[in-house]
Amino acid sequence: MALPPNATTGQRISRVVLYAVTALVCLFLVLPILAIVPLSFSAGSFLHYPLPGLSTRWYAEFFTSQFWLPAIWNSLVVGIAATVLASALGTLAAIGLWRTRFPGRAAAIAFIASPMVVPEVVAAVGIYFAFAPAGLTNSYTGLILAHTALATPFVVITVLATLTGFDPTLLRAAGSLGASPVTAFFRVMLPLIMPGVVSGALFAFAISFDDVIMALFLAGPGQRTLPRQMFSGINENISLTITAAATLLILTSVALMACVELLRRRAARLRGEA
Amino acid sequence: MIQAATVETTEIPALKRLLRRSQRRQQVTAIALVAPLLVFLLLTYIGPIGALLSRGILDPEVPSVLPRTTAALATWDGRELPPEVAFAALVADMREARSAGTLAAAATRLNYDINGFRSLMFSTARRLPAEIDSARDTLIGIDPKWGERETWAAIRRASGPVGDFYLLAALDLRRDADGNIVAAPEDQAIFIDVIARTFLISGVVTALCLVLGYPVAYVLATLPARSAGLLMIFVLLPFWTSLLVRTAAWVVVLQREGIVNSLLLGIGIIEQPLEMIFNRFAVYVAMTHILLPFMILPLYSVMKGIPAVHLRAAASLGAPPFTVFRRVYLPQTLPGIGAGCLLVFIQALGYYITPALVGGAEDQMISYLIAFYASRTINWGMAAALSILLLAATLVLCAVYGRLVGFGRVRPG
């Protein structure tokens, strides 16, 4: 909002102060994250500036280390499996919640949303306590199941938001043309709500890829994920390899963020044109 | 979704039936679609959490290992030492538990109540003679502690199957020999401190987020769309960046040989590196940084909906700028303030990773204690009781959020 031409000096000053504060807060938000990116290209081994020179030695170390490489693999395996499970379960549930009111719907929503609310340590301790006797701790299965539970609310919410723009008469039209409900779902509904499902899946992957607490309790030495290794790395000896790992994680986040944003804009454009 | 439009009046009863049947079919389909996720969450999430919480009020070890003793103590009035039958029952229970190898479970549980109970149990069980005249004299002869009322009261307190021992302990309380609730001894009263600290840290972080987030949200809401979109990247980048990356960033920035210290030393502002990490300052800075987007986004969405004409109207009626803000703008942003503060506060209450990595021993929050009791000392009862308190606080605040804001608002993404 531009200031009116007759603005007083006081108004002009407060406007300048406001913008200055905003700029400082934005720097506070972004600078610490960006500050570690150049460090990862340092030729030296100190965690401060100025850099003694540029090199990719920390990336070389990252991609050849027995500490980090298995962790990337573990994060991908767990993240992809949890994403597939959470997207399938979450999309079905979202369609069920969207379709009609039914007895117990409010309770079902509260249940489904609970992973967004329950403090993660409480959940992790409870899951550890229940999974240990079943032999699910120190296993991929246990970690995948826990990440799936954490991620499903985000899938349900994203798909539900997309479904509000979906016209249910399309399903009836498909039915009247002889399509079975399953065919109507795969040929009519799913293609239309796909942006929501993909956004939900990206959210789910981000949740799994970001999680440390579940990994701390449920992962054995063989399942340590990237964040879990970073946790030990920061705790024990923080080296520049961590800044390389962090830079790669930042790139992943930026990619995920860009995908979700593109999908959101595309969906908004489609709605605008309809 | 079912529309009964052009219908002859005579067909209504049949149509009603059809409609009802079709609605029921819809409902069954809907439930069938939601059911897989509900069952999944019940098995992998809600069930396990429920089982954990139940450990906070269950007290199963002592009654299962010392069944005769707990039965004999059920009728004990607690004023004097229990009768001979109780001593005899304990001797019998101990012999059995020792040969079955179950004594440790009960001894560990009793040790939570009175320090030294574990060794008392084991040394007594080891030194029990084969033949016994008076169980009472034998036990007191082995260890005079068996002649103290408090020892027996501890066993009775642990008689389960349900008990308030862990919950009281989590609030620095205990029951004395007469069953009254009293303050726990100094050396065991560590929990209220941590709970108060958890609320204090969450409160300070929420206040910092509000002070820093309000102007940013205002500028975001009033800028033209293109520049606002650019500014939004500054908010969304940290929002999407891994929590661990952000915590690691603060370690790199704040540590003794870190970016800020080397910068300040280089310029010559300071001569000694500042202690900026492993203390409360680092916890506040890192948590504020991580939670700030959760304040800005709801504030922004509320501010976006405030028509600028309101402000112009107030100004044209002669209100000075600050009055316009205080009387017209601020009240309209209250829903956003409420939503943002609750979102930040609720999340801050459960924080674990960030204080664990950038805080010192005196900056750990309740989640740290829960993890500590669950993984280091394996005291499930204590971990569960603390979980009950943390979850209860979270749920109460969520209910407040539901009343004030409503859950219809979809999280920003």
List the helices and strands and how they pair.
The complex is a heterodimer of chains A (274) and B (413).
Chain A: H1 9-39, H2 57-64, H3 69-99, H4 105-117, H5 120-131, H6 140-163, H7 169-176, H8 181-210, H9 213-218, H10 226-235, H11 240-273
Chain B: H1 12-54, H2 61-65, H3 67-73, H4 84-100, H5 103-113, H6 117-127, H7 135-142, H8 149-157, H9 165-170, E1 173-175, E2 181-183, H10 191-222, H11 225-240, H12 243-254, H13 259-267, H14 280-303, H15 308-316, H16 321-349, H17 353-358, H18 366-375, H19 380-404
Q: What is the arithmetic mean of pLDDT of chain A?
A: 90
Architecture (CATH level 2) name of the largest domain in chain B: Orthogonal Bundle
Helical coverage of chain B, percent range = 55-70%
| CATH-defined architecture of the largest domain in chain A | Orthogonal Bundle
> What is the top-level CATH class of the largest domain in chain A?
Mainly Alpha
Termini gap of chain A: 31 Å
Instruction: Determine Rg of chain A (CA atoms, Å).
Output: 24 Å
Number of contiguous helices of chain A: 11
Strand order of the largest sheet of chain B: 1-2
Question: What does the main sheet of chain A amount to?
Answer: none
The CATH homologous superfamily name of the largest domain in chain A equals MetI-like
The largest sheet of chain B is: 2 strands, antiparallel
Percent of residues in helices of chain A: over 70%
Order of helices and strands of chain B: HHHHHHHHHEEHHHHHHHHHH
Description of the molecule:
- The complex is a heterodimer of chains A (274) and B (413).
- Chain A is an all-alpha fold.
- Chain A has 2 domains: 9-58; 67-273, MetI-like fold (Orthogonal Bundle).
- Chain A has helices at residues 9-39, 57-64, 69-99, 105-117, 120-131, 140-163, 169-176, 181-210, 213-218, 226-235, 240-273.
- In chain A, helix 3 (69-99) crosses helix 6 (140-163) and helix 6 crosses helix 8.
- The longest helix of chain A is centred in the C-terminal third of the chain and has 34 residues, at 240-273.
- Chain B is mostly helical and 413 residues long.
- Chain B has 3 domains: 9-45; 62-160, no CATH class; 191-404, Orthogonal Bundle (MetI-like fold), CATH 1.10.3720.10.
- Chain B has a two-stranded antiparallel sheet with strand order 1-2.
- In chain B, helix 5 (103-113) packs antiparallel against helix 6 (117-127) and helix 11 runs antiparallel to helix 14.
- Chain B is extended.
- Mean pLDDT of chain B is 90; it is low at 409-413.
- The chains are: A mainly alpha (274), B mainly alpha (413).
- Chains A and B meet through helix 1, helix 3, helix 4, helix 5 and helix 6 of A and helix 1, helix 10, helix 11, helix 12 and helix 13 of B.
